[in-house]
Amino acid sequence: MKYAIYLIILVMMSSCATVNVKYDYDKQTDFNSYKTYNYYADMDSGLSGLDNNRLLNILDDALSEKGLSLAESPDFYINIQSVEFEDHQRNTVGVGIGGGRRNVGGGISVGLPLGSSKSNRELIVDFIDDDRGLFWQAVAEASYNTNATPEKREANLKAIVDKILAGYPPNL
Which of 141, 135, 139, 140 is nearest to 172 (CA)? Predict the structure, then answer.
């Protein structure tokens, strides 16, 4: 029974969505000079209207915790883009037959896929100074469930934003 509990915990932990984030930034930037931000008015995030609102609210809260505030005449603008894609499973089971005699052989094998493909979302967040251009970027990739409840969608977006903003400002 003791091992069954460990097995269940292991399965639950391995099924949790991980967020992979890559950061890039301009090394010449003085990140302490940026105190205010806003979003591009014509930004097309690629998210549904409700998910877009959730994301912006979560970002506003997280940026506020970092000492940044939303302003009409900001120090920098934020642009957000996202793309949804299918991640095809690479796990297969090989089934083969073969035979041969007198130094002659032959065979055939077939790979049978295990599981189904997963929906993933790539979210790109750009911080752009109108005078200097792009100075910080985060590209996050995470699994995405199109049938998730609003609460789960919000929790997923919060986890993504937390991971994205963990790299801002960068440790120079």
Answer: 135
Give the angle 148-151-155 at the CA atoms, nearest 5°: 95
Q: Give per-residue pLDDT as tens, 25-53.
A: 999 999 999 999 999 999 999 999 999 99
12 half-sphere exposure, CB direction, 13 A CA radius = 6
Note down the domain range covering 144. Answer: 34-87+116-172
Written in H, E and C, the secondary structure of 47-79 is CCHHHHHHHHHHHHHHHHHCCCEECCCCCEEEE
Q: Which residues contact 159 (CB under 8 A, 6 or more apart)?
A: 17, 19, 142
Domain assignment present for residue 149? The answer is yes
How many domains are contained in the chain? 1
| Tens digits of residue pLDDT in 122-141 | 999 999 999 999 999 999 99
**Domain holding 159: CATH number?**
3.30.160.670
